[in-house]
Write a structure and sequence with these properties.
Blueprint: E1 3-7, E2 10-13, E3 18-25, E4 33-39, E5 46-52, E6 58-60, E7 68-73, E8 78-83, E9 92-99, E10 106-109, E11 113-118
Parallel strand pairs: 2-11
Antiparallel strand pairs: 1-3, 3-8, 4-5, 4-9, 5-6, 7-8, 9-10, 9-11
Length: 119
């Protein structure tokens, strides 16, 4: 059974940094894409960043380019989201997600971790 467990959320001041982690288990993810999404109160869930597990190709939403960095540690089966220069608009529940091997749709989701940026 696939499990994605996020950690690292919390309360941070404007301009601060946080690193989110997503520990993946239950199968091999070498053919998958791993993504981070977020959902703010009253808004729809939106894409933040993704990475192809094997090749390491990364993609970012325009709103986070230059501030957020997605990476993965193959040995630990863990994906990270380093978030710098945080803004109040970054406040949201952040979710980790995974596609099936060689799939395009995110089929697996974590429970989410809250990030709050205070001004």
């Amino acid at each position: 059974q696939v499990q994605l467990v996020e950690s690292g959320g919390g309360l941070v001041q404007v301009g601060g940094s946080l690193r989110l982690s997503c520990a993946a288990s239950g199968r091999t993810f070498s053919g998958s894409a791993m993504g981070w999404f977020r959902q703010a109160p009253g808004k729809e869930r939106e894409f933040v960043a993704s990475i192809r597990w094997s090749a390491g190709n990364t993609y970012y939403a325009d709103s986070v380019k230059g501030r957020f960095t997605i990476s993965r540690d193959n040995a630990k089966n863990t994906v990270y989201l380093q978030m710098n220069s945080l803004k109040p608009d970054d406040t949201a529940v952040y979710y980790c997600a995974a596609t099936a091997n060689y799939g395009l749709k995110y089929d697996y989701w974590g429970q989410g971790t809250q990030v709050t940026v205070s001004s």
